[in-house]
Design a protein that fits this description.
This protein is of the alpha+beta class and 158 residues long. Helices cover 51% and strands 21% of the residues. It contains seven helices and five strands; from the N terminus they run ααααβββαβαβα. The chain has helices at residues 8-13, 15-24, 29-38, 40-61, 100-109, 128-137, 146-157, and strands spanning 64-68, 72-78, 82-90, 115-123, 141-143. It has a five-stranded antiparallel beta sheet, sandwiched between helices. α3 (29-38) packs across α4 and α4 (40-61) crosses α6 (128-137). The longest helix has 22 residues, at 40-61. The mean pLDDT is 94.
Length: 158
């Protein structure tokens, strides 16, 4: 398995897609129910293959990722061969970016000495999607890129 199996909740939400996936292999509901009982290891393999297909599709379309922690915000713009990053770090320990107040504080203090901003670029050393998946496993979430674009525009205009 290349990525990780979708959760039970994710699989339930993708019920229609999973049914189509099984249909491409000429497996109907009756047959699937039999496989789950008689050959659970085959059922597990089917779930793994489907999960990998879903992850591959999602990761291939991923343009932006974000990861918030108490004192850091990591913003990523994903290209074919590299990822560009903007890292915001609060130099005020009591600030918590995981709260609404912390984000408000950030907007008021973005370009002061209390915020450290680092910009980076990293070439993918391995498969692009695998690299993005690792970021997700570390806590990053898919994003529309709005915050990245806003901060990047301000940084580039300085």
């Amino acid at each position: 398995m290349k990525y990780s199996r979708l959760t039970k909740e994710q699989l339930e939400e993708m019920h229609a897609e999973f049914s189509k996936f099984l249909a491409t292999q000429a497996i109907d509901k009756f047959e699937w129910d039999q496989i789950k009982i008689e050959k659970p290891e085959v059922a597990e393999q089917e779930l793994d293959v489907f999960s990998d297909l879903v992850w591959e599709g999602v990761l291939s379309k991923t343009e932006y990722l974000e990861h918030f922690s108490k004192n850091h915000i990591f913003l990523f713009q994903c290209y074919d061969t590299y990822v560009k990053s903007i890292i915001l770090k609060s130099l005020v320990p009591k600030v918590d970016f995981l709260t609404k107040e912390g984000l408000h504080w950030l907007s008021d203090n973005l370009f002061t000495e209390t915020i450290e901003i680092k910009i980076g670029k990293k070439e993918f050393s391995e498969d692009r999607n695998q690299s993005l998946f690792q970021l997700i496993q570390q806590g990053a979430i898919l994003s529309d890129g709005q915050l990245f674009k806003q901060i990047n525009t301000i940084i580039e205009s300085e």
